[in-house]
Write a structure and sequence with these properties.
469 residues; alpha/beta; Transcription Regulator spoIIAA; 2 domains; four-stranded mixed sheet; elongated
Length: 469
Amino acid sequence: MQAYGQQWFGNIRADILSGMVVGLALIPEALAFAFIVGVDPRVALYASFTMAVVIAFVGGRPAMVSAATGAMALVLVSLMANHGLQYVLAATVLTGVIQIFLGIFGVANLMRFIPNSVMLGFVNALGIMIFISQMPYLIGGSVLTYTFAIVTLILVYVIPRYFRLIPAPLIAIVVMTTIAFVSGVKLQTIGDLGTMPSTLPTFFMPDIPLNLETLKIILPYSLALSVVGLLESLLTAQVLDDMTDTSSNKNREARGQGIANFVNGFFGGMAGCALIGQSIINVKSGGRGRFSTFFAGVFLLFLIIILGDVVVDIPMPVLVGIMIMVSMTTFNWGSFTFLKQAPKSESIVMIVTVAVILYTSNLAIGVVVGVILSTLIFVANISRVHIELVDGIYKVKGPLFFASTSAFVKAFDEVTASRVVIDFEDSQVWDESAVGAMLKVREKLESKDIAVVFQGLNSSSKQLFEQFT
């Protein structure tokens, strides 16, 4: 309890200030995601508020911000188009239930199977995607649009050199918005993206028939949302672990994501997960505790309900400048050195991961493809089994499993001796395919009246061999 209390109140001033920055940055993102799905802006804004507040209490990674996200929005597009908002909300609730069970069963333990090259690809693609997502607000804009974005970018880098009491992004937003308001310049604003809700979110049950047909409709979407949401959240947690040199409870985070989505669906919000751009803004602005995430959600609601008329006048180029800073911070510039020094296979995995994510605009698909490619390369590398004839004994060197059995069997095609001793001292028999290959070699040689002896099997290999013979 003491540690939990420290996570809440050990960094209170910085958490409040960073939460204010994140609350502002959540608004344009939420409006954009609502547009993607085709729902009222309230659905995404309420989701961002609910997710942030709930995950602050039940999440496993302090300072990580969860809200409506683009990855989850893409999954919901066809469900919204074909069945409507009530099914989107029901799918969100079911997503929460699935994620809670995945967290209970330790889904986060699978994180150890994601290699570093895939993590690098994930982070770099994320940085590129954040940058690209800001371009529609710049391309085709006036000179003033570019000027405000560039000046904001300069401010967020220069201010921390001389003043650190208040986060640089917050200062930049206030200063640049004030300049725009006083000068009366015409720039695209947050209000141009959508209208702000004027009421608080309320509890209600999704208006759907509770039958098997409904479950058939929402279950595929909920499964996809669960996987995408947890993958993005757990990878984001790992990124923040590395940035802050701290650890997090990822199985608790998985359960927390489920609880947050479960609650979210009953308050009119679309499914969400960790939002890495805003999470990085939070950490870079000094946020370290749970209170930063909680305050980001509360401040977001305060902005849209109380200060909605003011918030709509914040120039988009100002927020674009801040998000470009986030993209540059997210991108791992050491990857260029990695490409030169790492084995070609590792470099290929990283590049493919980046390419797939950018092509599909889906972080989960890119990571899965990267992991599969890494697995195939790993299997190819370790499946090189060698058989050497030393003093009349065939010595097997290397692991014997399904991918190396063909080479093992082929090595005994030309044997002419009357007796063959096959030594496994430098090998390990891993699976049934390996045992099957051993039996196949013995059967083939014995059919030629050649005696076969297996020796040197360690205890686990011997146990497996005896299990299938």
